[in-house]
Amino acid sequence: MDVTRATAVLDGNWLGSSTVPSRSLYPHQWSWDSAFIAIGLRHRAPARARRELLTLFSAQWRDGRVPHILFDPGTPADAYFPGPSFWRAGRTSGLVQPPVHARAVLAVHRTEPDRTFLATLYPKLRAWHEYLRTHRDAGGRGLVAIVHPWESGMDNSPAWDGPLARVTPSTGFVRRDLDHGAAADRPSDDDYGRYVRLASDYRDRGYTGFGEFVVEDPGFNALLADAELALAGIADELGLPAAAATHRESAARVAKAMQETLWDDGFFFARDVRTGRRVPEYTCAGLLPLLLPDLAVAPALLATATGPRFRLGHVHGVPSHDLTAPAFDPGRYWRGPSWANVGWLVRQGLLHHGEHTLAEHLRADLVETALRTDFAEYVDPLTGAGHGARSFGWTAALTLDLLAQPAAVA
Q1: Fold topology of 2-403
Q2: Which Pfam families did the record assign (predicted)?
Q3: Which of 80, 163, 272, 381 is most deeply buried (CB count within 10 A of its CB)?
Q4: What does the pLDDT read at residue 20?
């Protein structure tokens, strides 16, 4: 019955070649959403999971970037803002999102091996990672810099408040998100205005270079390092041992740069490239380096995860912001609520570092909370109450994946 419910969400959000995160709030294809959706879909419809990823990569730009939105031509132009007319980039946006795609491609292949699928996407994935390495190393330290909060996937994180303070908000636009979401759950008008300003400035620069917001995000970079490890797995599957070794070396370089640049006092912090200073906000992005199996500082990071700031194992999911911070808000977008994808990623990290009991507790909680809230977009970590959209794509997909996983035992 639980599998049936989760599958029904994905069926209801299917457009024919891709899956929307939400029929109301997000009526197009989003980049990292599709990767998580494919990870769940592989258990029920592997051919559809392959189609999901192939559709997304059909919109890859010549420079290698994978755009964060692929617009559905059958959806009314005014259903989402900013839409295609704002971006002036054809059928896509011009921003990116975290590179979780290689991990999804490898997972889909391993469920139902398809060498053609793997061989088709491997060069596209390499080009995507090469774009990030060559076009986004703003700090010269081997780390990717994001140029907009939306690129982190954690749009409204308190970690962006300081860098965003330099940005003058745009005005005169109509927000569409408030048509489908409570204002108390969504970003403020001023912050949304800053998002629009950054996006329009980047568009007007031809989607190149760096503006006022330039940040090295630990979550994005940890996911890139993990994606390089996944690419190594893909290269192994394709019989390319030298390429696999190169990808593993790349992952190690990113991990080393993160530890040298973003690590301080038991946590990974974002770094504002414009000021050269770390942003002193404890957000869930700083926990994602747990995905890296050889992370030397894992014990200290686990201590922070289970300590009072996140209370992992004693709250619902993984809070998106420090529970002890003045800015913590249990219901507002990325300023405190727990998200299924972050919980899923952190669980993978716990397993890498031998925390089987905690991983199993998190798995059970994520499944129970998703089912109880009708697959809510995000939840209050203290009460488990649902917020945002319901029948949310990646919540349902990752529930399917967690239901398919064997219980983690010590």
Answers
A1: Glycosyltransferase (1.50.10)
A2: MGH1-like_GH (PF22422)
A3: 381
A4: 98
